[in-house]
Every structure is written in structure tokens, then in C-alpha cells.
Design brief:
The chain has 508 residues and is α/β, with parallel strands linked by helices. The protein is built from 19 helices and 21 strands. The strands form five sheets. Strands 3-2-4-1-5 form a five-stranded parallel β-sheet, with helices on both faces. A five-stranded mixed β-sheet has the order 6-7-10-8-9, sandwiched between helices. Helix 11 packs parallel to helix 12. It starts with 7 loop residues before the first strand and ends with a helix.
Length: 508
């Protein structure tokens, strides 16, 4: 009998929206999946972790509108699994809490397809927490119930026991069903829930767009309508809502509501923004890769002992230089006798990671500053410098070294290539003004994005705070008529982040 390879489906919870709430197991599933079938309510940044070549299938489910029917979703899961693929069915919240995960699992079982459930952080608990509302509290609530606000329309009668809900639980959490809030509150009051019971509605919980409105059972639906609350939103009913004034932590952070676009891979330098409440929208437009040709770096390595100074301008330069050094059967011992200059603290840390000592970190990162430094330290004339750099690196400093009688080699050690993932999502966020600040760390990060989106990008960025890392990047944007709002004195990501924080806090 011919063996038929079958795939596997992972019914995976993505959490409520804050990307930090996705589980390690879910993230590993996303990274390895051949196919990802995802809903609207997930944080789209999660898809950046999909492996290269993974097929992304948008299943929709936005405010009652469906890109794919449930039957079509079921069929897609079966089709891809029978084709031998690993399928991640990615759902907002938890797949078994009103996520139709049970229905999808039944379909998979009926076709003999292996599946696994990866639970997620449900919005029923996490969204109230982000609004400062605990669903249990020793003084106020010893029980809670989670109820759908949008029952299956094919049911002949409601299976919700309104009398039990009104009288049997301290806290009620209704998921979905914004359009039904009025009827929900009426039924609770009709069945004995006091009309003055505190209530809250939370939209886009755990996101920068989070909005929380509070009232009591008899007026919360009207308040929600007045405040134009639309899906996705949940309603919380119970005395713990009163704790919001004391426990509201998420919406009171200094940079709450800020969504900051970074056009290079995420690093720890951006953490201060998140610590102050901003959401990072990671959208790297460049990818760092080895050079196409190793001739220049190999030639420099073979005579590495002849140099007086080894200058690193970035952590990438350090990593790719040391990697090639070892590939050529050398190691850091061959650098003995060379003095090392590192541009910036992060570059210094990258050097020290390999057990090497940095002799100097300049205060000024420009060519003039470096020339002054080396003249002060040991002079430049007849000295030999090795500057491993990126492809298309700037020539100003090497020209100055040669003008002062020094010798310098600038082998290409790495290069940045264009990488544009899922550009439509970013374009939609810019168009809907969900990006408040855009950052660019090189001219290439901007020009690559411009080539992908087109001239529309200029208009989309016109209402966004723009931060750049230095004058070269600034000129690249100004050439297209854009205004740069933030540029630090020193050209480092850390300094740019600090400048963004100062700019935003002053503005608030």
C-alpha cells in the first residue's frame, strides 16, 4: 500500500493583541509552519516570525464580515493538511474560548488529520486586566462567567440562562456582541441584576488603540453608542469595575497610544519605548547578509598583523569580520598587537563578546571627530588602518586618512539587501493613522520602503513624526519633501530612542 503523508494542524491562540502575550509554544509553531491561516484580530506583527516561503491565508472575521466562511476555513485546513503540510490555524485569544476551535478540531478528526491545541491568553481575562479591572477580587468577586455576546443564529432558542447569570455570578464578561449590548443589559436587569451594577466596555484591549468606557448596567450600552464603540470590544459587568480608577495601569503609561515603526530588525535599544507604553511595529526593510565576494576581506585577513588600528563602526561589522576570520582558519589571537577602535557602546560590547579589549570609543562619530582622535592618540601619517565596513560604505573618513598620509583598507564585510514583508498591512496602518512615529536608521531603510510602496508613502508619512539616526538619512527623506522631527546628536539607535522619548513627553 502506498503511504500517504499527512500534515498536522495546530489550533493556536495568539492572545488578545499585545504581541508580548503570545506563548513560546505558539511562537515556535508560527516559525515552523508551512501554512498559517489567520484571523483579523491577531496582532499582524506575529506574522513577521513566519519562515520564508510560508503561505499566509487570511481568514478575515472582522466585525461580522468574513473573508472566508467557516466551511471554507475548514476546507482549507483539511486541504493543506492532506497535502502533507504543517498548518498553524492562528486565532485571536484562545481557540477554545468562542474561537470555534472545537468545531475545527471535529472536522479535522473526521478526516483523520492529526491536530494539536495550543491555548492562548484569552481576552476574557487579559483585556479587563489591561483596563485595570480584575475579574475576581477577595472583597468584590468570588466567581465569574464568560458569555458570548453573539449566539449562533442557527439555534432555535437561547441557551443562555439569563436568570442564573443575573443572580449566580459576581462578574460577567461578554465577548463580542457590540451590537447586542443593549439587549444583553436589558435581559440582565429583567432577570434581577441591579440596574446600578458597575459596567465597562473595552475596545481593542491591550493595543495602543485601547478605549475603555464605564457606567452602570442601565446606561453602558448607550454610553458605548455615544462613544462610537465598535468591534472588537468586550463588556464587563460587576463591582470590580469600580477598581479601574485605582488599578488603571496600561492607559496611564507615558507613551500609551504610540505605535512606533522601526524599519530595521528589533534590538534591545528599543526597549525604553515599550517600557513607557509604546507599541513597536517592526517592519525591517533591510536584511544583513555576507558580501557577494569575499576577495577584499580575505586579502585584509591574510595581512591582518600588518595593521596598527582595527576600526569597527557597528556590531554587524564585528560579527561578520570575526566570522570570516574564523572561516579562514584564523582567530582573535591573530589580532594581537592591533589597537581597536569601536564606534559606539553597542559596537564595543560586540567586540568584548569575543574576549577582545577595546582601546578607544570616540565621543564624536563623524569623520572629523575620528581624524582628531587619531591625531591626538598616535598620529595618522604612515599608520595602517583596517576598517571592515558595509557594501557602499561612506568614503569620507578613508579619504581623510589618506589625505593625512595614512594607509587604510576598507574591505566589504557585509551588505544590506532589501527586505519588505507584508507591505499591505503597513500601508493600511499608515493610511488609518495607526502609526504615530516612523524611524529610519539609514537612507536604505527609507528608499527600500519607498520603492515598495511608491510615492504614496510620502503622503502617508506627512502626518507622522519622523525620527532618523543621522544627517545622511535625514537628507534622504528631505529630498522627497518630508520633514524630519527627531535626530539625535550622536548617530546611534539608543540616542535616537532617547530623543523620541524626549520629543513625545514634551509634546504631552
Amino acid at each position: 500500500m502506498k503511504y500517504i503523508k499527512r500534515g498536522k494542524v495546530y489550533l493556536t491562540g495568539a492572545g488578545p493583541g499585545d504581541i508580548g502575550l503570545i506563548t513560546v509554544k505558539a511562537l515556535n509553531c508560527i516559525k515552523s509552519a508551512d501554512v498559517i491561516v489567520y484571523d483579523f484580530h491577531i496582532n499582524g506583527q506575529i506574522l513577521n516570525y513566519a519562515k520564508e516561503g510560508a503561505e499566509l491565508v487570511y481568514a478575515g472575521k472582522r466585525g461580522g464580515r468574513h473573508e472566508m466562511s467557516q466551511d471554507a476555513i475548514n476546507a482549507a485546513l483539511v486541504e493543506h493538511a492532506l497535502a502533507g503540510k504543517s498548518v498553524c490555524r492562528l486565532k485571536g485569544g484562545d481557540p477554545f474560548v468562542f474561537g470555534r476551535g472545537g468545531e475545527e478540531a471535529e472536522v479535522l478528526k473526521s478526516h483523520g488529520i492529526e491536530f494539536e491545541i495550543i491555548p492562548g491568553v484569552t481576552s476574557a481575562i487579559s483585556v479587563p486586566a489591561y483596563a485595570g479591572i480584575p475579574i475576581t477580587h477577595r472583597k468584590y468577586s468570588s466567581s465569574f462567567a464568560v458569555i458570548t455576546g453573539n449566539e449562533d443564529e442557527t439555534k432555535t432558542g437561547s441557551r443562555i440562562n439569563w436568570q442564573a447569570l443575573a443572580n449566580g455570578f459576581d462578574t460577567l464578561v461578554f465577548l463580542m456582541g457590540v451590537k447586542n449590548f443593549s439587549s444583553i443589559t436589558s435581559k440582565l436587569i429583567e432577570n434581577g441584576k441591579p440596574a446600578e451594577t458597575p459596567a465597562a466596555v473595552i475596545r481593542w484591549g491591550s493595543r495602543p488603540e485601547q478605549i475603555t468606557v464605564t457606567g452602570v448596567l442601565q446606561n453602558i450600552a448607550a454610553i458605548s453608542q455615544t462613544e462610537n464603540i465598535k468591534p472588537p470590544a468586550i463588556m464587563v459587568v460587576g463591582s470590580t469595575v469600580l477598581l479601574r480608577d485605582t488599578l488603571n495601569w496600561f492607559e496611564t503609561r507615558p507613551l500609551f497610544g504610540e505605535r512606533i515603526l522601526i524599519t530595521r530588525p528589533y534590538s534591545a535599544d528599543y526597549e525604553p519605548l515599550e517600557a513607557l507604553g509604546a507599541e513597536i511595529f517592526e517592519f525591517p526593510t533591510i536584511k544583513i547578509v555576507p558580501p557577494e565576494n569575499f576577495d577584499s576581506i580575505d586579502a585584509a585577513i591574510e595581512k591582518v598583523g600588518s595593521y596598527d588600528w582595527l576600526i569597527f563602526t557597528s556590531a554587524n561589522g564585528v560579527d561578520y569580520f570575526i566570522k570570516r576570520l574564523m572561516e579562514k582558519s584564523h582567530d582573535v589571537r591573530d589580532l594581537k598587537g592591533l589597537r581597536i577602535c569601536a564606534i559606539g557602546i553597542k559596537t564595543k560590547e560586540a567586540v568584548e563578546k569575543f574576549g577582545m579589549r577595546v582601546d578607544v570609543v570616540p565621543d564624536e562619530f563623524n569623520a572629523e571627530g575620528l581624524i582628531k582622535l587619531f591625531e591626538t592618540l598616535d598620529g595618522i601619517k604612515n599608520k595602517r588602518f583596517l576598517l571592515p565596513q558595509a557594501e557602499k560604505g561612506r568614503d569620507i573618513f578613508p579619504e581623510r586618512v589618506r589625505a593625512h598620509g595614512g594607509y587604510i583598507d576598507t574591505p566589504v564585510t557585509y551588505r544590506a539587501i532589501s527586505q519588505i514583508p507584508h507591505v499591505k498591512r503597513l500601508e493600511r496602518f499608515l493610511r488609518e493613522r495607526k502609526i504615530t512615529t516612523a524611524t529610519f536608521t539609514s537612507a536604505a531603510t527609507f528608499t527600500n520602503l519607498l520603492e515598495s510602496i511608491g510615492e504614496t508613502l510620502i503622503e502617508l508619512l506627512s502626518s507622522v513624526t519622523i525620527a532618523v539616526i543621522g544627517p545622511v538619512t535625514k537628507r534622504a527623506l528631505e529630498k522627497h519633501g518630508l520633514t524630519v522631527n527627531v535626530m539625535p546628536e550622536r548617530a546611534t539607535v539608543a540616542d535616537m530612542v532617547n530623543s523620541i522619548v524626549e520629543n513625545k513627553l514634551i509634546g504631552k
